[in-house]
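Handoff note, outgoing to incoming analyst
You'll be picking up this chain. Sequence as last confirmed:
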Amino acid sequence: MRLDKYLAKSSGFSRKEVRRFMKSGEVMVNDAEVMDPALHITEEDEVYLSGYPVEAPGDKYLMLNKPLGCVCSNEDGTHPTVLSFIDLPRANELTICGRLDVDTTGLVLITSNGKWAHRVTSPKHKTGKLYQVTTADPIPEDAVEKFNKGLMLINDKERTKPAQLTITSSHEAEVILTEGRYHQVKRMFAAIGNKVVELHRQRIGNIELDEELEPGEYRFLTDEEINSIK
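Most recent structure output, in case you need it:
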């Protein structure tokens, strides 16, 4: 693919704008400044625009390890957003697949493919999401059955869908949900008289948070991970 077409499709800039970047020395391929818009680009080439790496044209799929103190939204006047960690052109236009609260950490999936994002978040697709929970009080054994039957939450008209609760210690558990109501994990524990003090999302479907990602770091998904969302 021609370099100008590659950059235009990847960045959203017009070819005219791309050529202007080239003339000002802002386009590099494999560590060399390039001014030829007709240069052929292959999958092996590394392309940079204004110092930022440019991924090949096509939909983007990423996982990010969300740290405390940031929000899952495109804009926020108070807190940094998860998209502020994404070092890609037009990152603010990407879709965040579901939300985590400002005080919740862990796996966030981000994409440019709206249909794929819908499959991740829609309860109809029953994509399980695994959360690791730490509570203020001990978790009673009968909580497993209560979660499995579904719970009535304050201000909701219907019980939650069955959730799988695995108690791992007196104050810790893993919960798998297939829906995403507002503050659902916290409200489910509140419904049994307990309080969540730490909450971390570890897995969505078969996509596990990469243990090598530090809080605030991200990577692109593999084809296998992308295709695991049905």
